[in-house]
Every structure is written in C-alpha cells, then in structure tokens.
Specification:
It is a single chain. The chain has 205 residues and is an alpha/beta fold. It has a single domain, classed as Ribonuclease H-like superfamily/Ribonuclease H (Nucleotidyltransferase, domain 5, 2-Layer Sandwich). Helices cover 40% and strands 17% of the residues. The chain has eight helices and five strands; from the N terminus they run βββαααβαβαααα. It has a five-stranded mixed β-sheet, sandwiched between helices. The longest helix is centred in the C-terminal third of the chain and has 21 residues. The two termini are 30 Å apart.
C-alpha cells in the first residue's frame, strides 16, 4: 500500500468524540469514518457509543452537544468495534491530529484483541505544517476558514470528518501539482520527514 499512488488506495477519514483527552481516563462516545477512493466518497460509517459509565460529562456535552440521553440506548464500543475495523480494513487512515484518535482506537484494540491497529496513517494537522506554513493555526477550524470550507457543526464526529476530508482534498491537489503522489512520500511528509527532491517538480511548468 505504501508504494501505491493517490488514485490507487482507499482512504478512511476518521474522527472521534470522547469523554476526555486521554484513553486512560475517557471513552469514545462517537465514531465517524468516510471512505474516499478514486477521488469520490464511496461509503460512510457512523455511530454514537455508550460509555461504560453511561454518562457524558457536562463539559463534554457543552462542547459537543452530545448528552447522556443521546447515548443511553446506543451500542457499547465492543459491540461496534468489529464493524468499524471491517470498514477501515485495507485503507489509509486520515485524521486531524491523528495521534489523538489512534490513541483511543488502539487502546480499545489492545483491550479487546491484544494488538494495535496496523494501517498507514496520515495526519492532516502535521501535513498542514509542512504544506501551509503561512497559516498560523493548524486547527481544523482555522484550516476550514483558510480554505473557505463551511464548518457549522464543530466537535461532532461526522461533521469534523467531512471538513477533514475537504481539507485533505486541497492537500492532495497541491501534492499532485508537485508530483508527490506516492503514499510513502505523503506519509513521510505528515511525519515531518524529507522526500526525495525528484518528486518536487511541478507538473505545469
């Protein structure tokens, strides 16, 4: 998959809402994923998740709009995690601040299966630092504003995933202009690593 080009792979753009900033003290309460392949959306995954406490902290409700009443009848993480893994299987994961999302997903994966998720990952936040140094803040909201992407429902998993995808599309367009199309190079950029100079020539010069 690493040697494939942009048009040869499937991407899963993911986003989570959680009850805290750490998987050691919090849980997932919402998961969204958008499958993007061949430059079109081909599928979506979405669910609210009932935490083991069956409670959503007040500050999280204020931030996300997700209330205890909304999650009380929803499935638990262990009931939907297999379906989520099936959805993202054999794809490249894309997330804004991917370290956060992967921390929670791998925590659940280790707990349920004793292993972490082994898929290529692209962090759009890290990629923005390489591609758009002129943008002071690399938050999802700031990048949405920079690209004039509508973002009305912040801190909800599917809305955040949609905006992340729109920003990722802009990034892919720029990368293609510089002939950077192989997944291995894009992943390197998102990890703040160098790519070979021969990939940095513009196509339209």
């Amino acid at each position: 998959m690493y040697n494939f080009t942009i048009d040869e792979v499937s991407f899963s753009i993911i986003d989570l809402e959680t009850t805290s900033l750490s998987p050691e003290t919090g849980e997932i309460i919402e998961i969204a994923a958008i499958k993007y392949e061949g430059f079109v959306i081909t599928d979506k995954f979405y669910t609210l998740v009932q935490p083991s406490t069956k409670l959503v902290p007040k500050n999280i409700s204020q931030l996300t709009g997700i209330t205890t009443a909304m999650i009380i009848d929803q499935p638990k993480i262990e009931e939907i995690f297999d379906s989520f893994l099936d959805f993202i299987d054999d794809t490249v994961l894309v997330a804004h601040n991917a370290k956060f999302d992967l921390a929670f997903l791998n925590y659940v994966s280790r707990k349920l299966y004793g292993k972490e998720i082994k898929l290529p990952v692209i962090c759009t936040c890290n990629l923005a630092r390489r591609l758009y140094p002129e943008v002071k803040s690399k938050s999802l909201s700031s990048l949405a504003h920079y690209f004039n992407v509508p973002f009305e429902r912040k801190h909800r998993a599917m809305s955040d995933a949609v905006v992340t995808l729109e920003i990722f599309k802009r990034m892919l367009e720029l990368l293609q202009d510089f002939n950077i199309t192989r997944m291995t190079d894009i992943i390197k950029l998102s990890q703040n690593k160098q790519v070979k100079h021969r990939y940095k020539r513009r196509r339209y010069v």
